Amino acid sequence: MSKKNSYKIALLDGDGIGPELMNEAVKVLDLVEARNNIKLELIHTPFGAQAYFDCGHPFPEQTKQICDDADAIIKGPIGLSHEASQKIPVDMQPERAALLPLRRRYDTYANFRPVSLPPGLAHFSPLKKSVIGDGIDMIMIRELVGGVYFGNKETGVNDQGLRYVVETLEYDEEQIRRILKVAFNVAQGRKKVLHNIHKSNVLKSSVLWNEVLSEVAKDYPDVEVRHLLVDAAATLLCLNPSQFDVMVMENMFGDILSDQGGGILGSLGLMPSACLGDQKAYYEPSHGSAPDIAGKNIANPYSMIGSVAMMLEYSLGMAAESKNVWQAMQSVFAQGYSTPDLSKPGSNVTMIKTNEFGDRVTDALAKAPSTVD
Ligand code: NAD
Ligand code: IPM
Ligand code: MN
User: Where does ligand 1 bind, in terms of residues with CB under 6 Å?
Assistant: First the structure.
């Protein structure tokens, strides 16, 4: 990645809590720009259910162009409540007609979902201290452009007059190899232990996945591979999460286990993510648009600001400033503040609103040492 002085960043506000979270991301981006003598051209553009209502498509042409031209993309969550979704034809719903096409367009096959609770935040976990010890620190690496999400789909009426559906879980060996290489590389840079999450006792796709894994593993003799069936992994995430450092899995397993990751942290609001392709990357919280709390200024923006921090590291080559952003967020928690998802009654945590969290983060970031060379 070449370091530049000026970047175009597409901002896809999304639905529900998306715009509220994006406001806080922008505060951080504006400050990062000012502190680092760079130009961040921030371009808001419609995406999601609101875009469908306003422009007739959840991923409008204009947004495609802006994203094509952008150095990086930051995306808020999209989607509506189950009931409200029914107002949009199935094939125009933003998950199918915007989010999956975004992932496919930029071939963002490597989804990094850190599940991390530094020691100072360990009390937020619903797990007992005896289970999580000093905190949680793992990264789930989810294949993001294959599997049942993108396989052939067919619906119809069969010979017996019954409605039926077929959805195909498809992978070719190259799709598997590239995500496994990413995971091995990450594991090599951390504790050199890679948990391979699969379901080879049932799925042929997992059998192929594991075959490819043993081929790739030959290039990483220093990385220990531990195989785990996905159902067992779900249990062990609750009973003994500290055994995990890097986990790799196919698309659907990663969707489900990463939300469980948010559960063991205490809130999905602590789940940022990076969606990385070889040419382009986009960044989004792992969670959805939270229709139950939208418009109330109470959503936790950590997931969104964390996604900005991941962008600084992976797309803009600003690792030191990225670290400053993480530390600024953690300092807000360390001072005893949180949004209500984590400040349960009687928890000794002072409840603050979404915008106040963002303000406190920028106050802390403004005091961090400059990273300008
Ligand atoms: P959700 O992730 O939106 O919400 C699950 C629970 O977590 C809710 O109680 C919500 O209030 C809470 N939560 C989520 N983010 C939070 C935050 N930042 N702060 C505090 N609490 C937070 O899941 P859902 O309700 O199943 O889905 C709602 C919509 O989001 C659906 O339309 C779904 O398709 C969509 N969705 C989109 C994405 C995405 O854009 N990548 C991801 C997941 C779900
Ligand atoms: C996520 C979401 C999406 C997924 C949906 C909204 C299509 O749940 O990013 O985790 O399943 O990938
Ligand atoms: Mn999900």
Answer: 77-80, 95, 99, 267-269, 284, 287-293, 299-300, 303, 341
When mean pLDDT is compared across 89-98, 125-134, 211-220, the lowest value belongs to 125-134
Which tens digits make up the pLDDT trace of 142-173?
999 999 999 999 999 999 999 999 999 999 99
The phi and psi torsions of 211 (rounded to 5 degrees) equal -60, -50
Q: Which atom of ligand 2 lies nearest, measured to the CA of 252?
A: 11
Position 241, amino acid:
P
**Residue of 255, 323, 353, 359 marked active site:** 255
User: Model-level pTM?
Assistant: 0.98
Residue in 240, 142, 238, 242 with CA at minimum distance from that of residue 197? 142
Cβ 93 under 6 angstroms from ligand 2: no
CB of 146 within 8 A of CB of 170?
Answer: yes
Strand, coil or helix: 26: helix
CA of 255 to the centre of ligand 2 (A): 6
User: According to the CATH classification, is domain 126-136+146-264 in 3.90.1210.10?
Assistant: no
Under CATH, to which class is 1-116+266-373 assigned?
alpha beta
